[in-house]
Amino acid sequence: MLDLPGLRKILIFGVMGVSCVGMFAAKVGPANSQFTADVIVYGGTPAGIMAAVEAGSHGKRVLLLERSQHIGGMMTNGLGYTDRYADKAIGGLPASFFQQVLALYGGKKSVAGKASAMGHLFEPHIAEAAFEAMLDPQPRVTVMLGVSLGDVQMTGRRIASLDDDKGVTYAAAEFIDASYTGDLMAAAHVSYTVGRESSGQYGEDLAGVGPAQRMGNQPLSPYMVAGDSTSGLIAHVNAGPLAAAGSEDKTLMGYNYRVCLSSDPANQIPIQAPDNYDAAEYELMGRIALAENPVLVPKYYLDANSLPNQKFDWNNTRSFFSSDDVGANKGYADGGGQKRAQLEARQRHYQQGLFYFLATDPRIPADVQNWVRGMGLCKDEFTDNGGWPRQIYVREARRMLGTYVLTEQDLKLQTVIVDSIGLGGYASDDHLHHIVAMNGGVSFENSRGFQPTPYPIPYRVLTHRMSETTNLLVPVAVSASHTAYDSLRIETTYMIMGQAAGAGASLAIDESVPVQRVDTGALQTLLVGEGVVVAF
Fold it and tell me: What is the pTM of this model?
């Protein structure tokens, strides 16, 4: 057994050829069979980092366990064009992160005449440096990299410890699952769901399958031989019809890689066609290019948003054939490591091929091709992965069925929330779930969304049912309907909920109570004192 008050950052052996970031106090292999702490945070995502910093600041010994070799989740893996909402709704540790980013840029106007958009626009390596800067002053927080979840040991309704895939045990009084996929939550047999509820389940007008919408401004033939329904469907178009609007649907919105591109020739790695590239996979894009009148501008083909230092965050163009391989994430939420790796490889193959197609297919407008050809991967990003992001963008996976399920009514301020731990406010924003052939054309489908005003997030969405577990908090795979999760699912809100989870875990220890019975009045007082905004 190894106690941890003096250790800071540890690399668990098992990954060959790893380049470590930051200064590591020690490298520890499986010979150390057990580590103990007050709080264990599983997932070095932005939410997990905020939870660890918060608990550490209250004197708790914290283990922050991350399966990869880098902390920061999507914010250090290409998502540098940060989703945001009302600045006055963001306080506490998330605001400190953005201030740290801004400080690393020296407050200089670096993008579109803005001071790096007040820290909301950043390069991946800058985000990683900002997170490191927040962790460094926390002597009781230990970051452990290369830790993948194996089994969970329960003592009654309490999680006693978890084992990693190397047989090392990690024990604590309180646990926080900050992973994007809710793996610790699932391993502890906490109830959860995957996919979209029907509109009737929670009485949500916008829930379930959305209405079919035509893809493109002009009708597109979905058939291999245009107009011939007997010739089969082109790639990425499935047979219709869709299920009835408002009905339950177990699909997930599309994933992609938030690739960081550079327009600086001196900082470029060319994006090559993937092995077994087949231009026919992108026939739908070619038909869109021919059909559109007037010709679409480059942003519709490759939605790349400006970052500092001639870099761009390649996102997905919603309601369009784009970097999301729609439907290709089936099985990811509950999949094991091998299944997820296969789906991640498929997404990378698709996205590399799409980039190559845009650069070479003669149907793509010349200005688009020239713009794409002027881009490459960044030599100075993801240097241990050839310039490609290390993590895929998991926009949603599992969602806990907890003490309280946040719904559309909460986002529309139709309920009374007395245990607010922060504010949400991002649009209820869903990516595509289906691309189908309908009525001789191509249609897409996703959930209908809306723009809420800032709304309170109850502490209860972080907690699970008392009958299942009493010492686990979940700030990412939170208890929310799909419609509500469409708004919660951004890193800024995850960080807000992560800070609250760290505070809640600390109070549960101090009060010797289950996490569900933490004094929420005391929790709110603590958070407000740290600059968190709990009411708008």
Answer: 0.94
